[in-house]
Amino acid sequence: MLTFRPITAKDFLILRPYYEHCTYRLCEYSVGVKYMWQHSLHSEYTIVEDCLIIRNTIHGNVMYDFPIPGPNGSVEKGLLAVEDHCREIGQRPVFSIVPESQGCRMAMRYAKVSITNEWSWRDYIYLSQDLAKFEGRRYSGQRNHINKFRKNHEGAEFLPLTAEHKELIEQFWVDYEAEFAKESESAKKELEVAKDLFTYLDTGIFRAGGILYEGKLIAIALAEKCGDTLVCHIEKALYSHAGVYPTMVQAFAGYYADDCLWINREDDGQDKGLRTSKMQYLPSERAGKLCFAVGNELDSLDELPELTTARLTLSAFTEEDKAAYNALCLDDERNRYWGYDYRKDLQGELTEDYFLDVAKKDFDARLAANFAIRLDGKCIGEAVLYNGDWRGGMELGCRIAPEYAGNGYGAEAFAAVAEWGLYKLGLLKVVAKCYRENEPSFKMLSSCMRKVSEDEKFYYFEKLI
Asked: Which residues pair with residue 37 across a beta bridge?
């Protein structure tokens, strides 16, 4: 199970090496966005085998960024880590803000997945030289605005900003707030975090600059280089100085974007004014952001089917099975090889409905399929298909009440569920394991599956056909 920690300013230098070389071109893959929007993203991180994994919680919904590998990491290891973590905690993996370049990979990875194309949150991507030069007829409007600005603001110049310009920056915020009274809470929060981010210029992570006129800043910007893309986090200007905005955009790109092919000016937040402004600078593209909500083969079921063998019937548990099922689940001596102790997840007192309720809850969430094994209508055991790997594999377990053991009922039920899983449910494989000292289970699994590995604790099996 992965352990995550919230992203704070103290983590900048830990996260930055991963984002510095990230090629996804989306603004969310940057230190600045994770920090500025922490109040709404609630981002947390962990690092697994030199791969950065980010977990966000947005309006109560948990979703993961696409993994960002370091030089010794890999996307594959990152995806596996998230999938295994979600399997352990009983949560479906949701990968949000997946770059379009990885869309095919993700679609082919999962058999059952829901894909959402987040049109409204696409980033505006520009060729850096387009913004640095404003060449050609299509940019004549921007050039006219800049020429007028230069004419009316003689001596105005672009100033690269560092921590040493603290007083100039603080005065800009005073002037900015005097011109733009922000009423909405979201606008106030955005301004607050923008101010805050400018206090970290001494980290060396950000590139900042502004237009200086008559000893004061009348426009400022802050960006972060991620791969071949300069991600612009903050662009603010005093509109009382007509033409200062395009002047600052051009000057900033000209000074800072020589080592970047692209400039990402982020999304528009579904704001009409921002959308109009960003479109006026003629983006080369609007970078897509995909969301992959991963499911499993159980999603196709409305209810558990009834399976039959030569001697047995397998079907969903009912109220009539309560006593037999409770006895099965509470038999600690028999269940020492089951591999799970119900006390681990029990909260409060154990009730007579607990085990049936858990089985129903797991099926309702389509995380497990618990079959009652019946002999002449009487429940004598359980076969459960669970622990899906999200890529076509699920684990199968089986247990039989002690008074019915030794008659081959477990093997018969196990084979029936495995066959159903592979040929009716559509699984690619069924896996199982048994403790090394559990000889009866080893013999049963060996009779119908292929042993694939072992460790100090378990033998591992799989069935593909």
From this structure: none
Q: Are residues 430 and 304 in the same domain?
A: yes
Query: What is the distance between the alpha carbons of residues 419 and 315, in angstroms, rounded to a whole number?
Result: 15
CATH number of the domain to which 319 belongs? 3.40.630.30
Contact 219, 212 (CB under 8 A): no
Q: Residue 77 is part of which domain span?
A: 5-121
Rounded distance between C-alpha atoms, residue 308 and residue 313, angstroms:
5
Residue 197 lies in a domain: yes
What mean pLDDT is predicted for residues 400-412?
94
Amino acid identity, position 132: A
Q: With contact defined as beta carbons under 8 Å apart, do 156 and 237 qualify?
A: no
In a domain, 278, yes or no: no
CA dihedral 15, 128, 286, 94 (to 10 degrees): -10
In this prediction, residues 355-380 reach a mean pLDDT of 96
Nearest to 213 by CA among 261, 123, 152, 164: 152
State both tokens at 179: 């011109």
Q: pLDDT tens, 325-345? A: 999 999 988 888 888 888 888
CA separation for the pair 421, 341 (Å, rounded): 25
Beta carbons of 312 and 413 less than 8 angstroms apart: yes
User: How does pLDDT run across 417-435, given as a tens digit for each residue?
Assistant: 999 999 999 999 999 999 9
10 within 8 A of 38, measured Cβ to Cβ:
no
Shared domain for 128 and 97, answered yes or no, is no
Residue 284 belongs to some domain of the structure: no
CA 218 to chain centre: 39
Helix (H, G, I), strand (E, B) or coil at 465: coil
Q: Are 445 and 434 in contact (CB under 8 A)?
A: yes
